[in-house]
Amino acid sequence: xxxxxxxxRHRRRMRLLRRGALYVVLMMLxxxxxxxxxxxxxxxxxxRKAAMQIPPSWIPRQSASFADHEGRKLRVHVLARTASVRxxxxxxxxxxxxxxxxxxxxxWNPWAEGITSAQVPDAPGERGTFVPVEVVSATxxxxxxxxxxxxxxxxxxxxxxxxxxxxxxxxWSNYPxxxxxxxxxxxxVNTIIMAGTVTLGQVITCSLAAFAFARLRxxxxxxxxxxxxATMMIPGVVTLIPVYILFVKMPDVLNWVFGTEWFxxxxxxxxxxxxxxxxxxxxxxxxxxxxxxxxxxxxMLRQFFMGLPRELEDAARIDxxxxxxxxxxxxxxxxxxxxxxxxTFTFMGSWxxxxxxxxxxxxxxxxxxxxxxxxxxxxxxxxxTLLMAGSIIVLTPLIVVFLLGQRYFVKGIQLGGVKG
Length: 420
Prior knowledge:
Elements: H1 5-44, H2 48-51, E1 61-69, E2 72-87, E3 93-97, E4 101-104, E5 115-120, E6 129-144, E7 154-158, E8 162-168, H3 174-181, H4 184-215, H5 221-230, H6 236-258, E9 267-269, E10 273-276, H7 284-288, H8 295-306, H9 310-318, H10 323-334, H11 336-351, H12 355-360, H13 369-373, H14 384-416
Antiparallel strand pairs: 1-2, 1-8, 2-3, 2-6, 4-5, 5-6, 6-7, 9-10
Helix pairs in contact: 1-14, 3-14, 4-8, 4-11, 9-10, 11-14
């Protein structure tokens, strides 16, 4: 029965449905990853007023009040909206603000005509109670904002002549404003120095350690490697304070050992650009040194090195190569994919570092980008549009590095799963 043409078509339809359902689920999961970035990009192009609107809008729009006056559409600022109402119970005529009007519908009949009521104070200083009223007329007091002879003139207009209008208006000026409000240029230099040096240091130290653990034979090698891996299980917050104290006290200790004050002096490049101390707090050394060594990078490269054929190493040793020459001329050229993977992950992780630079750096001239961004958060508010624009500025190099390096670490994952 299943071998008939109808059975084959049925199986084909079911296969297409399952594949389509799988694609829908994957697209939904992918959307959860990309939506925060799109929201951040959208907010960075909004005005401050639009960024605080409820409900929020995905498209950057700008809104303003307009009025039709003497056959012209004028941009205005609404000062007050009032209404002349008549109480249906007493017939008394009152002047109330629009905020005091409320229209309600019977809960049992949502299609019925709404009943208008106004909040009337019972006594001076009291909020008052709502009474049924009939609106006689509504007026809006506005200030004209259009350039001309009536600029800033205050007039009264019928309420229905004043309305809100909005239009798509990306605020590209948020980016130069963000760049100029904080020293992003110097912070970019600091972050590039930190991330680039940490990446280079990890590639060198991890590859040397991984080569020793994977290709050399010495007593206690495996036990030492297991102890090295055990450091990955220690949370970073446990060692944060001891490492901080170590780096802060280091200049004083070295000054005492060598009998000098040079290690705690502020240094300047070419006598102009502040580069902090040589070591200790507020120094590039403190930013870079803790991230140069990585147990994870060593483990990853060791696993990759162990998959390389030993015949090439034996041939190089026959030609007179020592361990360093084998490492440099044989192992590294065959491990470009793994090294590129480690470099990409390390660079992205160093670029996003926040907690350690926040602790060890106290001067704005040495702050990396991630710490600089939090300056947009004040005690009484947050400049969301500038914060999101700054986040896009910070993320741009990471996106470029990811796009350039993804083919290397995807290939590295594929090769890492094949042995022999």
